[in-house]
Design brief:
This protein is α/β, with parallel strands linked by helices. Helix content is 42%, strand content 17%.
């Protein structure tokens, strides 16, 4: 009888709650206004022949490298950041190696590392989700072959100074250190500016958030040229589809559109945090396009109540140290105002109900 590998059979199944997502989608940190009109224009110009050909990744990789200010040999385009993580695990992890992550964080680091048979080493974030640098350094061992850090982190929104990350890179020269900058645009600080580039450092970016291209699944993996060459060996030459490659240059050219949306998110993030404070809810200051808020035992009722207002938010109560927590995506200013109005009404009714039943 055919059976999957033990490492795969033992994996926790990650199933994002994608079904029935009708309404204002503030649950997956997507753009709430979508992609640039220039992207749509390029999309509409595609013909049957463009879709019949196998996609050419390399010319677009050169444009991305020029945009980032690095050499083309340092860039690999991937099917979202998820594939970038998967490729790193496939390239560097052997069974019984160790993969080190700080929790809570993005679930796919654990999934892909454990699928390779690696042992997961988890370091719990400090008070108020502070980055536990000493805890990380103390857990690095000769068996550590991958360290993944989301910066800013998901679901907490916390950011780590680049100098802190570089201390980890220097402390583990035998490990691939991934700095996942999926939310870079909303934060504005990048490990990319620190040179010379260490040979064990990798950076990932996505076009799913600020660029509004989540449905096309395209991301960036950057690193030292000799290491990216190794990762290319396990990547399919056709891993990024032709449509994504055709529209990405237009997305890069329309930085005015991206910057406007990022500015709205940053302003909305501040407004939302001020409102959460006024409503008496505990939250954690964020550098991303979302805010993690502690609702408490009524978190499920809170989520359902917002859904009745046509607003979807993300339940994070099962993440380590996130009991009773919900994550709220920040979109355009208009959408943030819609969320704030709904929050006031929902919390008012929940508190009235609690007082009646006390």
């Amino acid at each position: 009888m055919l059976e999957a590998r033990p490492a795969v059979k033992g994996l926790h199944v990650y199933r994002p709650p994608l079904a029935g997502r009708q309404g204002l989608r503030l649950d997956f940190n997507e753009s709430t206004i979508g992609c640039s009109p220039r992207v749509l224009g390029r999309l509409h110009s595609l013909d049957a022949e463009a879709l019949a050909r196998y996609p050419e990744r390399e010319p677009v990789e050169k444009q991305v490298a020029d945009f980032l200010g690095i050499d083309t040999a340092q860039v690999l385009l991937t099917n979202g950041v998820d594939e970038a993580i998967h490729l790193l695990c496939s390239t560097y992890l052997e069974p019984d190696d160790e993969a080190l992550i700080v929790v809570p964080t993005f679930a796919m680091y654990a999934v892909f590392a454990q699928a390779e048979g690696a042992r997961l080493v988890q370091v719990l974030a400090g008070e108020n989700f502070a980055f536990p640098l000493e805890g990380v350094l103390s857990r690095i061992s000769p068996k550590t072959r991958l360290i993944a850090v989301a910066n800013p982190n998901n679901p907490t929104g916390a950011a780590v100074a680049c100098e802190v990350l570089l201390r980890i890179v220097r402390a583990a020269p035998h490990a691939a250190v991934l700095v996942d900058e999926a939310y870079f645009e909303f934060h504005g600080e990048t490990i990319l500016n620190h040179t010379p580039w260490p040979t064990n450092l990798f950076m990932a970016r996505t076009f799913s958030k600020a660029y509004g291209l989540a449905g096309l699944r395209i991301g960036i993996l950057a690193g030292a040229a000799e290491q990216i060459a190794m990762v290319r060996r396990v990547a399919s030459p056709y891993n990024v589809n032709a449509v994504a490659l055709a529209v990405l240059p237009e997305a890069l050219r329309d930085q005015e559109y991206v910057e406007h949306y990022v500015s709205e998110v940053q302003r909305g993030r501040e407004l939302l945090q001020q409102e959460l404070k006024a409503l008496g809810l505990r939250y954690w200051p964020s550098r991303a396009n979302f805010v993690l808020v502690h609702v408490g035992p009524a978190y499920a009722e809170f989520i359902r109540a917002l859904r009745t207002h046509g607003i979807l938010v993300r339940d994070r109560h099962t993440d380590p140290a996130c009991d009773g927590c919900v994550r709220l995506t920040v979109g355009s200013l208009e959408h943030t105002q819609t969320l704030i109005v709904a929050l006031r009404e929902v919390l008012g009714k929940l508190r009235e109900h609690r007082e009646v039943n006390a």
